[in-house]
Amino acid sequence: MFGELFRVVTFGESHGPAMGCVIDGCPAGLLLAKADIERELRRRRPGQGGASTARNETDEPEILSGVFKDKTLGTPIAIVVRNADHHSADYENLRDLYRPGHADRTWEDKYGIRDHRGGGRSSGRETLCRVAAGAVAKVLLTGYGIAIRAWVSSIAGLDMPEPEAPDFDFDEIERNPFRVPGREGAERALAKIAALKAEGDSAGGIVSCAVTGVPPGLGEPVFDKLDARLAAAILSLGACKGVEFGAGFAAARSRGSENNDIPVLAEGGAGRLSLSFKTNNAGGILGGISSGQRLEFKAAFKPTPSISKPQQTADRGGAVREMIIQGRHDVCVVPRAVPVVEAMTALVLADFVLLQRAARLV
Amino acid sequence: MFGELFRVVTFGESHGPAMGCVIDGCPAGLLLAKADIERELRRRRPGQGGASTARNETDEPEILSGVFKDKTLGTPIAIVVRNADHHSADYENLRDLYRPGHADRTWEDKYGIRDHRGGGRSSGRETLCRVAAGAVAKVLLTGYGIAIRAWVSSIAGLDMPEPEAPDFDFDEIERNPFRVPGREGAERALAKIAALKAEGDSAGGIVSCAVTGVPPGLGEPVFDKLDARLAAAILSLGACKGVEFGAGFAAARSRGSENNDIPVLAEGGAGRLSLSFKTNNAGGILGGISSGQRLEFKAAFKPTPSISKPQQTADRGGAVREMIIQGRHDVCVVPRAVPVVEAMTALVLADFVLLQRAARLV
Amino acid sequence: MFGELFRVVTFGESHGPAMGCVIDGCPAGLLLAKADIERELRRRRPGQGGASTARNETDEPEILSGVFKDKTLGTPIAIVVRNADHHSADYENLRDLYRPGHADRTWEDKYGIRDHRGGGRSSGRETLCRVAAGAVAKVLLTGYGIAIRAWVSSIAGLDMPEPEAPDFDFDEIERNPFRVPGREGAERALAKIAALKAEGDSAGGIVSCAVTGVPPGLGEPVFDKLDARLAAAILSLGACKGVEFGAGFAAARSRGSENNDIPVLAEGGAGRLSLSFKTNNAGGILGGISSGQRLEFKAAFKPTPSISKPQQTADRGGAVREMIIQGRHDVCVVPRAVPVVEAMTALVLADFVLLQRAARLV
Amino acid sequence: MFGELFRVVTFGESHGPAMGCVIDGCPAGLLLAKADIERELRRRRPGQGGASTARNETDEPEILSGVFKDKTLGTPIAIVVRNADHHSADYENLRDLYRPGHADRTWEDKYGIRDHRGGGRSSGRETLCRVAAGAVAKVLLTGYGIAIRAWVSSIAGLDMPEPEAPDFDFDEIERNPFRVPGREGAERALAKIAALKAEGDSAGGIVSCAVTGVPPGLGEPVFDKLDARLAAAILSLGACKGVEFGAGFAAARSRGSENNDIPVLAEGGAGRLSLSFKTNNAGGILGGISSGQRLEFKAAFKPTPSISKPQQTADRGGAVREMIIQGRHDVCVVPRAVPVVEAMTALVLADFVLLQRAARLV
User: Fold this and answer.
1) Which member of B31, B75, B82, D337 has the lowest number of beta carbons within 10 Å of its beta carbon?
2) Which domains does chain B have, with CATH numbers?
3) In this complex, do B68 and D113 lie within 8 Å of one another by their Cβ atoms?
4) Which chains touch A (3 or more CB pairs under 8 A)?
5) What is the share, in percent, of chain D residues with pLDDT greater than 70?
6) For residues D87 and D202, what is the distance between their CA atoms, to the nearest angstrom?
7) How much is the mean pLDDT over chain A?
């Protein structure tokens, strides 16, 4: 379960009958169409380029509750997506083998039982439910003028231009299969990914995220800081191994006189003062609370563990064996992680927008 | 509030009457002495070296409830520490000024009111409560054979030896004021920090953390992954700007064939198989669940924003002004962050140890 | 959302596409068949006697996740039941009218919008999801030797024999459509309900519940007392207006010397002492914690507000009007509340059984 | 822990160093003076009449945090009350004996350890913390025009006049030591309690509560219904054995045509329609949501289990023994339960007032 007021539960195993989510706490009266969910699911769908698996699912969402005549009722919104394209037989040899870099063994350690078909619930397919729920959160946030934009800023070791760079192109992101911000980078990525595919290897990358329109004051000041909750949200994605806000790890090597963001101009607006700063090393968060600057963070994703090269592994009995992973797998999952990062960010922000209503007397 | 079963609430403003915490959900029957808490509070106390503020608090904890004849009762454990050494007058000029890099302004945006004396609740002094609560969690974990060890792996841009390096010395960590693992590094740090102090500037750094004895199976598989919860715990520290697990951001630039941890030997033990691996790029976590390997992560801390150099800032009316921050401040907060990182790690692990009891039928 | 460790979310409007629940936190390795759920749903199904509505739904549950080869995986268990038999047109005249005794108006006050068809989410059909989730909890509890038995102890003002009475017959409960404990009472109820039906009126009643096999120690001692949580569970049923434990309201009129349960015999068992008592005025709970005695409580249900007599009501514009409620309605909902009360009791106990594992060191 | 947004934790054993509470989630900017808390604590204090124990504690609260210059900061409010008047020696003989009607044995079953002095945490003294927290909630509610009024409607089997009766006198409630609404009843109660005291026996009673100014729309529609949450709050008081709303158990014996509350007049006000009803059998709650009518409920309290008559009981070894309870005990706890019932009601309503802000878009 995720969230305090805008709460989400997801369910479903990769090769079970269906995946889905229930959103509890979405305010009543929100205009919500099925197309809002389909659009985001389409962005996550596999088969969008050389980087991705060929699994062919339509991923058609069905809204079971909580919406009446395209308006939210305030009641739980259940969304279900059927699992259509099972190749469970591909996974038969995994019943007693633990794939390197996968959660097969830890899952079994935890529960004493696992659904070995396609990773079961630990499959990346689980993120589909997050994207569906995040689509609802995005609709809510749009009404508050909050816009979330993520992209691939590094793929297979190739760094892409930063938002401040002249060749950074926001519109290019959804045009190329790698979701990199600029055509030149997309071409470099294509070549690199193709080479890795030929070798039977895989790649990781970094997703950057920028959020505009975040009002100052979001985030709880001690344990539930805005960055703490975002970090948990992003690191709850299976392949994510790190997250940093603003200057992030580079801040650890800078001086206070360099890292402090200095106000240059104070602007009014709606009766309240809003500051502008020379820099945004803070990534839009001070003391765990949004400052009104652009929210900025980066997330590191490890390379897909499923590679077609032979690998050494262990079986249930403890014997070390060689295995070759079959089935369809992404060479690089990172471009498909972009809508998922956006979805998780949306869920966190929707929750804080609602929580903030209770923080002070009106 | 923090945690699901091992729950913690903290309270207190830096210059109010007292700070404290309530731990709800600590199991009954645990041997707990006041000295267990004092020892950890002493490690966090200021005035331990050139890096630290000279604020002189005894930080004497009082256990108000939950313990009877040095045994926990299963009831809430309240611990209070009085605030003794107020220099509130140092902060009078901050009533209407927003310090760069501090949460003064965001706090006011959130609540419409703030206690300007010493940062109020956004003060680093709030971490005292976490250390007190973490001390209780540590006692619980010790009974399970879980040991948490953190240190400063980078300070003011100077990198220290890694755990695998020949000059890495665990015992040195608590011997030098910078909590770096090796005498040579401590001397380099001393020189660098002294120079920054002379300039009126400040430094950040990186805290590394390693946990041994973590049983496989801790962590919830989707939203409440072990790394997700740890990330939230660590990023809930005000100065923290990033966290990474195992290979972390470097994993994003590696290949699957390099990054997958390959099992080399399967060892039995207590009737269950435990795997050994050639590497630990995963940092001891797979799919959000502990693997039984050493848990490893790093956290980036920004430089102390309070520097004695004159800085440009803004006041409540919107005017840009120059300010000089008075009061006593750490040149580098990172060595004192070490026990706090350990405390937050202990709180997360204590919670998961209790949660794991409910994950499967016995 | 309901529960702390054994958590349940339900969703669905009466005339929407489907109803359902997600159970998060059910331990792995539990044997769970679809028939376990069907059996309980069948007990709740309408059309079981003169007391009930004629709505004819098959209420076929589909398990979408969390179960693999009839064993729970430890992952969320989603169960969906399609809504088949819509007579939405029956409710067209309710779009702007507020039915007396129904939540039409309060719902609209809360959300500014409502699904007027059959009460939407405030329909009694919502309890179907609770029964499905409770069926899973019952399977868990059976493994611990905990058995829950509810019955109708008063219907339409007719009191039935108490468990201690010679004519109390447990086996009779599921044999007659009113779920009363004894054939003679069933005949009296039949006559009374038939008379009310002829008059176009409705009746309320009292459900009693007894739980055997509850181990001592369940319940949290302050806010989350066993009786507090059970009371919330039972009063979360729309028609319930009161709940009492053991001697209940009668205890308020007794003396301490009468009401105290006096131990008569101390029996060992599994190395622990278990007390017997002369009486059970406490209803098996002392200080919010189960004592090991039989858990006993009663719940009062108001008469069905939907009656076929003409009634005065108000419309959205504020005008007072006369209305006749159409559609199919229970003369008395209480017999169908029996499996629902059992389900809610099972959910509370399953949660406490899991929570108790974390209360003390082993 | 209690509450979702307006959250409360309490701590403290009866004979430990202190009792207290932490309120997390109180909005910033609320005017709160120490006197607001003292006033309510004074109402709960023992020694107020023939019905009460003679324990003489000043119960002086100290606010440790969350308030700055008599305004709430939005941060956790910690309140501590020292335990001053220990007569722990009175309880020495209870170390191995289980008092009838007390939680001694169940507590030990749960935790394997207990503080036997004065009941430890299961002591009625724990309610002091609830009253302190409730005092803060009351201040918040007063700003919303919500007023909570409780009284003793039945004591030692003597029924007092109902709010509609001509001899019901609200002002009398705080004037007499039994908190009954009318002088004549107070005199009857005095005689009855004195007689019980002479016999060494004790009495129970019923507390009624009425809340005016509750806006329509409070309460969550399924599990967290307003009545469900209130029931849990009230039944979390150790001596409470039942609760009923509006017509309560009597509703179970009435017909739909009698029990439905019929609207008689629709009044406008602030742009929204508000209904008046002929009756209030619903107790101001329909479908778990406040209707805008007066909120009404009753709670049954069992007689004080500590009586001075000799009683049969059991010891830790299982032997049945006779015991005489020493120490100071209330003949009837019910008058002192009045401010506690009000406090719990205030906590629930404060939470729902804040939650309601998130229920619909503005």
Assistant:
1) B31
2) 7-246+282-356 (3.60.150.10)
3) yes
4) B, C, D
5) 91
6) 22
7) 90
